[in-house]
């Protein structure tokens, strides 16, 4: 892991994963952890994210100068007010229109189908958050936030482009080995929409910075959890918040095999592999570098190899402690919303259930798409509970501020 050169104390970075509606879980986690970090004098000043995590990175950066409890309350309120109507246009007419466009395109050879859903409302929703954008610029200008960055994927090259704003962003250099390019410019609503442009479902977004001009899709395609960019920005303590456990459950020896997976199970497994496995590899690599440095007895400032400097980077991962907890919560919410005659009041949710299929196979997929206030509340509560349990264990240690950060172990 490399660090940029600086004579100043290295800051704390928050790195937030993508995950659609699951992003509400991250709000619950940070609502509990940020007050404790502030009490320790370790308030984050770098915020990075992908997709829903990019939105949260901007939100927490915008409220970084507020009391942590007030910031969390304001951000949770924004999530509750961002329903599916604020993200994409009605599903039924959108799918019908997409089908017509696809047929016409095939018959006439005109423009091909770009996506199944129309996210025009999302851009307006993001642009209308004027208090957020003012807060972001205020905190970047004052130095309360030293950098905020969001990741998107450039089409067709498939390179990750990290758009970074703030004083620490100026010294970033591209990372050809990892196919990561950096663009230093003001973060806007268009960047967030590009970072969250889920392939197939959401349309690509055209961005035209001075460098890397082109069409972009969801950053989670290549870099769902931008840990390496956080270190490139100078952080030596990195708080990573994910929406999947970092460890898979053990397979019981001689246990009864699971039932044959449905297509939804296979899709959820593939999605997890794309979004979660690279994060686990980055954390394992970070742990390995830390072990090498510590076993070699290297000084805290690290060692230089060529034009790169390696040093110990302390980290903490926080994510669900129970497999499929967010999926179960989403399934419970939808089951309640569709009980009795309620499908007549909200046929779109009934259609969503029909398209995804029955429980439990569809629960995990549903948790990425269920932009409903009651699921937002459930996800925030799950994140809050997991963070409280972590703090309970850490605060009982002799030196909790040191025990919070790890160097060679994963939860």
Give short descriptive properties of this protein.
411 residues; disordered N terminus; alpha/beta
Q: Shape, please? A: globular
Largest sheet: 9 strands, mixed
Number of helices: 15
SSE succession: EHEHHHHHEEEHEEHEHHEEEHHHHH
Low-confidence stretches: 1-8
Rg over alpha carbons: 21 Å
Number of strands: 11
End-to-end CA span? 20 Å
Return the average pLDDT rounded to an integer: 86
Q: Quickly give the structural class.
A: alpha/beta
Helix content: 40-55%
- Our estimate of the beta-strand percent is 5-15%
Kindly describe this structure:
It is a single chain. This protein is α/β, with parallel strands linked by helices. Helices cover 45% and strands 13% of the residues. The chain is built from 15 helices and 11 strands. β3 and β4 form a beta hairpin. It is globular, with a radius of gyration of 21 Å. The two termini are 20 Å apart. 44% of the residues are buried. The N terminus is likely disordered.
Topology:
Blueprint: E1 12-16, H1 23-39, E2 46-50, H2 52-62, H3 68-81, H4 91-108, H5 120-127, H6 130-142, E3 147-155, E4 159-165, E5 180-184, H7 189-195, E6 205-207, E7 214-218, H8 227-232, E8 237-241, H9 263-275, H10 277-295, E9 303-305, E10 308-310, E11 314-318, H11 325-337, H12 347-356, H13 363-369, H14 373-395, H15 400-403
Parallel strand pairs: 1-2, 1-8, 2-3, 4-5, 8-11
Antiparallel strand pairs: 3-4, 3-7, 6-7, 9-10
Helix pairs in contact: 1-3, 1-14, 2-6, 3-14, 5-7, 11-13, 11-14
């Amino acid at each position: 892991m490399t660090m940029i050169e600086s004579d100043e104390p290295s800051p704390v970075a928050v790195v937030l994963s993508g995950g659609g509606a699951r992003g509400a879980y991250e709000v619950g986690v940070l609502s509990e952890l940020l007050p404790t970090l502030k009490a320790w004098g370790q308030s984050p000043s770098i915020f990075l994210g992908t997709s829903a995590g990019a939105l949260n990175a901007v939100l927490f950066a915008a409220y970084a100068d507020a009391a942590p409890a007030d910031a969390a309350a304001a951000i949770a309120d924004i999530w509750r007010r961002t329903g599916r109507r604020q993200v994409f246009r009605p599903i039924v007419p959108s799918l019908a229109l997409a089908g017509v466009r696809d047929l016409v395109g095939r018959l006439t050879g005109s423009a091909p189908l770009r996506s199944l859903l129309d996210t025009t409302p999302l851009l307006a929703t993001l642009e209308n958050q004027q208090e957020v954008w003012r807060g972001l610029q205020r905190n970047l200008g004052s130095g309360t936030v030293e950098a905020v960055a969001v990741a998107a994927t450039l089409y067709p090259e498939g390179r990750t482009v990290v758009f970074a704003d703030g004083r620490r962003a100026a010294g970033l250099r591209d990372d050809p080995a990892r196919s990561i390019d950096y663009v230093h410019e003001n973060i806007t609503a268009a960047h967030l929409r590009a970072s969250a442009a889920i392939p197939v479902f959401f349309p690509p977004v055209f961005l035209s910075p001075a460098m890397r001009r082109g069409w972009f899709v969801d950053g989670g395609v290549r870099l769902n959890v931008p840990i390496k960019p956080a270190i490139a920005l100078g952080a030596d303590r990195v708080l990573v918040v994910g929406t999947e456990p970092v460890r898979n459950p053990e397979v019981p020896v001689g246990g009864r095999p699971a039932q044959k997976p449905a297509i939804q199970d296979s899709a959820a497994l593939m999605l997890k592999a794309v979004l979660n496995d690279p994060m686990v590899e980055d954390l394992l690599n970070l742990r390995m570098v830390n072990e090498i440095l510590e076993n070699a007895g290297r000084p805290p400032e690290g060692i230089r190899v060529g034009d790169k400097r390696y040093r110990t980077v302390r980290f903490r991962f926080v994510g669900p402690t129970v497999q499929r907890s967010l999926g179960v919560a989403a399934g419970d919410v939808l089951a309640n919303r569709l009980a009795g005659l309620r499908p007549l009041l909200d046929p779109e949710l009934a259609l969503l259930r029909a398209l995804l299929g029955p429980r439990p196979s569809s629960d995990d997929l549903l948790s990425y798409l269920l932009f409903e206030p009651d699921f937002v509340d459930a996800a925030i509560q799950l994140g809050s509970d997991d963070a409280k349990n972590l703090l309970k264990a850490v605060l009982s240690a002799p030196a909790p501020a040191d025990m919070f950060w790890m160097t060679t172990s994963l939860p």
